[in-house]
From TrEMBL:
Keyword set, alphabetical order: Cell membrane, Membrane, Transmembrane, Transmembrane helix, Transport
Gene name for this UniProt entry: ydgK
Protein name in UniProt: Bcr/CflA family efflux transporter
Organism of derivation: Paenibacillus abyssi
rRNA-binding is among the record's keywords: no
GO CC terms of this entry: plasma membrane
Membrane topology value: Multi-pass membrane protein
Residue ranges constituting the Major facilitator superfamily (MFS) profile domain according to the UniProt record: 12-395
TM ranges: 12-34, 46-67, 79-97, 161-180, 216-241, 247-270, 282-304, 310-332, 344-365, 371-391
Annotated Pfam families: MFS_1 (PF07690)
Length: 407
């Protein structure tokens, strides 16, 4: 029975992980085409980067909608609807006649892709809690983190025989496959008696309750700010690697993908050792590792160090994201069984909204310097540490003091 349960758990993690990869593929797969798209649309790199910003905004806002819908209508039906919208918007991106419409359709594409991210995590919370949730979430991340690892490589492969239009057609095909998987393989995990009212006022109250929970807010901000730093990395490295260091699209994809390995390493360390080392200990370690790595990125950027000296600290920074996100998610979701969709939505929306703000800032000083990337990563690491210690640690300290006084 145990073996059967393990096989079922792995199959479920594979399926949910596929839905989670839709976000990374939507974000990353067209990155190697940035220079080509800027030339074809006769526009600036900043406007091409703004298409990424639009996608991130769609992913962020969409999670608030899909999280609330999944708490009210279940997980399966909203996922079916949004997968259909994803296919349509991907095809619209492929045939956009100008950069303005591409930006609009990228927002719609990100909005639809958000369902795969937030609902897959809500399903995980429906089925697991505590250490079991940490273990399963790390398994889910093992699959979903393959998205950042493989998406640029896949994009580069598509670009080797077609244009950027082929990238968006490929994404439409991926969305079609996930629609079929939702229709025939995914079972409903939220019974009707556990569903929340679907009126707008109730959803606002649910989000208000979550945002007034200091510990939830602290975990949400610590995770969200850190991941926002990754979006700066995602937005900046196509130009830094290719324009500053002269890397080809294929070399860029390999370098970008190699850093994706660090996401997997970070998340799997937490999942494998969660029964021996607490999630809070891992969260502390990940936050401080990110701070040190981002400081190293600034130093390399200022002295114009060779490419490998930039790739190494970025590898450790992304590993820190794998550690902090895997540790923070179960800590934040504990006690949120009746609002799992809304809680997962907030945990997902903050990184994308913050990422949409910081992504265009990477190119603010032009295409010939990596200093803005280092500054953004360092600020993100420091802000995440500050949010955690002000909101979570201070609350834990107050609770401990109150308990001591009552004895």
């Amino acid at each position: 029975m145990t073996n059967n349960n393990n096989r079922h758990e792995v199959r479920l993690a594979l399926l949910l992980g596929l839905f989670s990869t839709l976000g990374p593929f939507t974000i990353d797969m067209y990155l190697p085409a940035f220079p080509e798209m800027a030339e074809q649309f006769n526009t600036t790199p900043s406007l091409i980067q703004f298409s990424l910003t639009a996608c991130l905004l769609g992913l962020g806002v969409g999670q608030l909608v899909t999280g609330a819908l999944s708490d009210g209508y279940g997980r399966r039906n909203p996922l079916l609807i949004f997968m259909a919208v994803y296919v349509a918007s991907s095809l619209a991106c492929a045939f956009s006649p100008n950069i303005g419409l591409l930006i609009v359709f990228r927002f719609m594409q990100g909005f639809a892709a958000s369902a795969g991210i937030v609902i897959s995590r809500a399903i995980a919370r429906d089925l697991y809690s505590g250490k079991d949730l940490t273990k399963f979430f790390s398994l889910l991340l093992l699959v979903s983190n393959l998205g950042p690892l493989t998406a640029p490589v896949a994009g580069s492969g598509v670009l080797s025989f077609t244009t950027w239009i082929g990238v968006f057609i490929t994404l439409a095909l991926l969305g079609t496959y996930l629609f079929i998987m939702t229709k025939w393989r995914l079972q409903e995990t939220l019974p009707s008696e556990r569903r929340s009212p679907t009126n707008f006022g109730h959803q606002l109250r649910a989000y208000n309750l979550l945002l007034r929970d200091r510990q939830f807010l602290g975990y949400m901000l610590a995770q969200g700010i850190m991941i926002a730093g990754v979006f700066a990395y995602v937005s900046g490295t196509p130009f830094i690697y290719q324009n500053i260091y002269g890397a080809s699209p294929t070399v860029f994809a390999l370098l970008f993908g190699s850093n994706g390995i660090s996401l997997i390493i970070g998340s799997q360390i937490v999942g494998r050792m969660s029964h021996r080392v607490s999630e809070r200990t891992f969260l502390h370690f990940g936050l401080w590792l990110a701070l040190v790595a981002s400081a190293a990125v600034i130093i390399v950027a200022v002295v114009n160090g060779p490419l490998f000296t930039l790739v190494i600290p970025l590898f450790f920074f992304v590993a820190a994201i794998g550690i902090t996100s895997t540790a923070a998610f179960p800590l934040a979701m504990e006690g949120q069984a009746r609002m799992a969709g809304s809680a997962a939505a907030l945990l997902g929306v903050v990184p994308f909204l913050l990422g949409a703000v910081v992504a265009p800032l990477v190119g603010i000083a032009g295409e010939d310097t990596a200093v803005p990337l280092g500054v953004i990563l360092l600020c993100a690491s420091a802000a995440a540490i500050l949010a955690y210690f002000l909101l979570v640690k201070s609350q834990q300290g107050s609770s401990q003091n109150a308990a001591n006084e009552s004895k």
